[in-house]
Amino acid sequence: MDNSPVPDGIKKKSRLPAIIAVVIVIVVIAAGVSIIELQHHSTTANKHQTLVVEVGSGSMTEQYLSTVATNFEKANPNVTVQITTEGYSDLLTSEESALKGASSTPNIMMYYASGAPTLGPYLYNLPTSSTGGNGVIDLSNQIAGNMFSGGYRIAPNGTILSTIGVPIHTVIGYMLVYQKSIFDNTTLQTAFYDKYHFSFNPRTYQNWTALQDAASFINTSTSFNGTHNNYALLFPDHAAHSIIDGFYNLAYPYLSSDPSTGVPANSSPNYWTYFGNKSGHYVVSYNNSAGVQALEMYKNLTQYEPSVSVSPVGYSEQLTYYETGHYAMGIAWSSFFPDYSNSSQSKVAGNYNVSLLPGGYTGYSPTLLGVNPHSPNLTLAVDFLNFATSSAQYSLGITDFSFLPGSANGLKVAESDPGFGWVSSFINYSATIHLNPSYAAVVGQVSPLFSTLIPDFNTQVLDYLEGTTTAPAALNSAALQWTQTLTNDNIVL
Q: 49-170+368-437: which CATH architecture?
């Protein structure tokens, strides 16, 4: 705080003005803002300040925020914004270390939904309101599914304890992509309908069995599978991380339709899908017959690509393999679509469509920005978040980078862009989701999610995909490991 004396120009001339001055000071202090603090704010506003923003290297968010940083500096001549990067595997560790060590930098941190349980207890509680403003986040402009996927820290009873981040990038995961030239082929449409008696159009598939039928049909069709380089379906199966994301998307309809799992309907798939409410307590949801059905389907859907033992499909492979045009369909993050549309590198540019997953649903996997509470100027950091999520900046991101906004207003802007026509299906779907806050709160309590639970689960499922164990044994082993870890860490859900 600035403790400089009152300016010399203020002199005592009578008793009455002095009394009035005292009353004014008392009133201002009672309001929580002293004259001295106001003076300090006006002084520091003119001091040169630096914001350090840490992001994942090579991410779309890095590209977008680099431009936003330049624009923010132009609007604030006394501010410098430095973008620093970390690789995916090191980002969370770097940020956790900075927060626990009370480091003043980075001031702003990018994180993914899987990292929210780790960083949540240490991130700044962002001021929010229904209108926003200087140093305040407009909460009414956020997609609920995105916020519950990592924007909130929530108590077990469902009370929102703090707002730890805002979605900067809406990453929808997963969605179904398919080549138009294959599914618009009338010969294939007729042959498929004659055999399976439902439409060949992927947007109409009601379940994963329908997708499997379509993949099987394409796989045996000489009209498409004319060479050994062509495949019917690209499905993630890499144990480094992709399995955990692929399975919760696939397992969601199986688990949510079986009351015994405790997974509610209309909850949308996410990491919370791995826990179900059993008589008021949350337990692992997938070690049951519904989970086994889902895992068996998972293995079926990975048979149309190279074996996981030979060439596992992770995030990079999902991006680059589908661009080759050798896959009729694929499961993809929405962040891949700009690359798919790039005609200089993609063979499917102009020849692919996007759909929600079979049954008409998808998951929320936003990229978020949080603020370091040890930052020397928290208001400036929050102002940068507001600037980065403004419609004006998002409009530039949509035009220049095909960057999908994180806010509701931004998504509306994207919806009107020809390259994002499919966004309307996501917006309409989001309006049907009713998340129970206590259900979403489970993930926030599971701090070893990223470090222990995900690797344990992926290892067991990989063993099943490679044929060294059964589906029930894989899921039971994973559930046992999860339960033991939670017990050892004294985590009661």
A: 3-Layer(aba) Sandwich (3.40)
